[in-house]
């Protein structure tokens, strides 16, 4: 029986013919990394291959690592296997990985979204025979509104809170979501303050994207300075001592999970904005169709439900277990020096 071009192992997605892993979750010699979130780019690999825009991101997170960068569509060959990176649209520097050997083509998406957010290189479908897709939001209930509408609602929410003399605290992951929010916040309403984790990552990304000015929340920042303004913070800051100085405040979270009211209640969030860096149900389906793939492998998320639906549509679809966690995996748990 012919061995698959890519197989799922206890270390990650493995191309045996090239001895290369894609987004491995255990240390390996050579790793191709799709993007900078912690569940896809882990410490301990001997070599990291990724898009040049992702190099400063993973270097900020992982420290002194050996990296090699390849531009979109640039082919590199390892042991007669051809690889290339293609835009995933997920966050800045996020790639899909195309793998080709003897005319057979596989594509691994990592995480991706189809809506152009204005800061990430927009997603591009890549023709292939086998497509490995995430299913973070692989249910029909997930249907995103256009980004423009959601961001307008966020600015309206901030303005209303300012009129009531309250500080607005908006939670979003420090890499990707926070910068997407920051890019479109209306500075005519007030000042944008940031948590240290978001400020540090935004400084890494400023050479790539024009962002509004921000002010870091420090021990010296007073309640008076914050009143009426907005604070961007990672989800891990919610309920922490760091947030106490901001009373009176109103909280909100920007996430695909805000589709469900129960998710907002469980997180004790005042307001939920449905904004995700992943595909919704229709985005997943249209992406798969655009690849022309006959075989689809569904990974993290609602993989069982989604793969069953694909089989009903005539695809050769199955699931594989990984250690990727989708939008849940982007939550930060580490403390920043500015939190206390």
TrEMBL record:
Keywords from the UniProt entry: Exonuclease, Hydrolase, Ligase, Nuclease
Record region (Disordered): 320-340
GO molecular function terms listed in the Swiss-Prot or TrEMBL record: exonuclease activity; ligase activity; RNA endonuclease activity
EC assignment: 3.1.-.-
UniProt cross-references to PANTHER family, sorted A to Z: BLL1145 PROTEIN, CLEAVAGE AND POLYADENYLATION SPECIFICITY FACTOR FAMILY MEMBER
NCBIfam families to which the protein is assigned, alphabetical: Xnuc_lig_assoc
Protein's UniProt name: Ligase-associated DNA damage response exonuclease
């Amino acid at each position: 029986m012919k061995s698959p071009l890519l197989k799922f192992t206890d270390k990650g997605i493995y191309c045996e013919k090239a001895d290369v892993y894609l987004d491995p979750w255990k240390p390996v010699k050579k790793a191709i990394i799709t993007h900078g979130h912690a569940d896809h780019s882990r410490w301990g690999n001997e070599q990291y291959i990724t898009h040049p825009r992702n190099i400063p991101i993973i270097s900020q997170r992982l420290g002194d690592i050996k990296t090699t960068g390849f531009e979109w569509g640039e082919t590199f060959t390892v042991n007669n296997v051809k690889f290339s990176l293609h835009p995933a649209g997920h966050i800045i520097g996020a790639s899909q990985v195309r793998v080709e050997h003897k005319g057979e083509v596989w594509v691994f998406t990592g995480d991706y979204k189809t809506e152009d957010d204005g800061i990430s290189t927009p997603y591009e479908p890549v023709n292939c025979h086998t497509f490995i897709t995430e299913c973070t939001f692989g249910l029909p209930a997930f249907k995103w509104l256009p980004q423009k509408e959601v961001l307008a609602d966020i600015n309206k929410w901030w303005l209303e809170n300012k009129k009531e003399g309250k500080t607005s605290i908006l939670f979003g992951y420090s890499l990707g979501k926070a910068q997407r929010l920051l890019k479109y916040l209306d500075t005519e309403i007030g000042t944008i303050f940031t948590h240290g984790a978001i400020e540090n990552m935004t400084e890494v990304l400023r050479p790539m994207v024009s962002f509004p000015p921000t002010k870091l929340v420090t021990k010296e920042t007073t309640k008076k300075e914050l009143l009426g303004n907005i604070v961007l913070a990672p989800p891990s800051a919610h309920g922490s001592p760091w947030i106490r100085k901001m009373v009176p405040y109103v909280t909100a979270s920007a996430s695909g999970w805000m589709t469900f009211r129960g998710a907002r209640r469980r997180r004790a969030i005042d307001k939920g904005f449905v904004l995700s860096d992943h595909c919704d149900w229709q985005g997943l389906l249209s992406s798969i169709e655009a690849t022309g793939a006959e075989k689809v492998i569904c990974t993290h998320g609602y993989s069982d439900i989604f793969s069953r639906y694909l089989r009903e549509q005539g695809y050769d679809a199955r699931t594989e277990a990984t250690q990727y966690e989708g939008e849940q995996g982007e939550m930060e748990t580490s403390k920043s020096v500015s939190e206390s």
